[in-house]
Amino acid sequence: MNRGVIETLLGALVLAVAGVFLFYAYSSSDIGKGGGYEVTARFTTVGGLKTGSDVRMSGIKVGTVADQRLDPTSYLAEVTLSIDDSIQLPIDSSAAIASEGLLGGNFVDLVPGADDKMLKPGERIELTQDAVDFIQLLSRFMFQAGSSSASPDSGTN
């Protein structure tokens, strides 16, 4: 009987620790933090950008990627960005898909413009720069380097 009480107390302790861990994980993540206003941007290609990826300005997170969809008329990727209410973007701002490194994820990098008129919720950022495909760049470099090292004239007669 004594052993059953100890096992019950240990089980309750494990559940309490798991509950504290889940509470900490939820409170320290961005889950449940909503708000902000949404703007859209169109890109030819988004690379590895995912819904929930960061939107940054000067390296500081100012929002998240809320949605991605393919525009059936233009065949461009339309990305919806949720921007913090405290950040106002000039209408001539630009958005670029950047990478955190060779193996890192992609994020949207915003560069504010200089116009006095600000973007309103639902408007579109017109100036965009697509994601750079590092694998494609590397393969082009390798094939160019390989073809330039083989000379057509071997020097023999």
Describe the model:
The chain has 157 residues and is of the alpha/beta class. It has a domain at 37-133. The chain has helices at 2-28, 134-149; strands at residues 37-43, 54-57, 60-70, 77-83, 94-99, 106-111, 124-125, 127-129. It has an 8-stranded mixed beta sheet, with no helix packed on it. The longest helix is centred in the N-terminal third of the chain and has 27 residues, at 2-28. The protein is extended. The model has no long low-confidence stretch (mean pLDDT 85).
The proportion of residues forming helix, as a percent range, comes to 25-40%
Number-wise, the strands total 8
Low-confidence stretches: none
String of helices and strands: HEEEEEEEEH
The dominant shape is: extended
The main sheet comes to: 8 strands, mixed
Average pLDDT, to the nearest integer? 85
Strand order of the largest sheet: 7-1-4-3-2-6-5-8
**What is the number of helical segments per DSSP (H or I, 4+ residues)?**
2
State the end-to-end distance.
100 Å
Strand-pairing-aware structural class: alpha/beta
Estimated share of beta-strand residues: 25-35%
Radius of gyration: 25 Å
Question: Brief overview, please?
Answer:
By secondary structure, the protein is of the alpha/beta class. The protein contains 2 helices and 8 strands.
Keywords:
eight-stranded mixed β-sheet, single chain, 157 residues, alpha/beta, 8 strands
Walk me through the topology:
Layout: H1 2-28, E1 37-43, E2 54-57, E3 60-70, E4 77-83, E5 94-99, E6 106-111, E7 124-125, E8 127-129, H2 134-149
Parallel strand pairs: 1-7, 2-6, 5-8
Antiparallel strand pairs: 1-4, 2-3, 3-4, 5-6
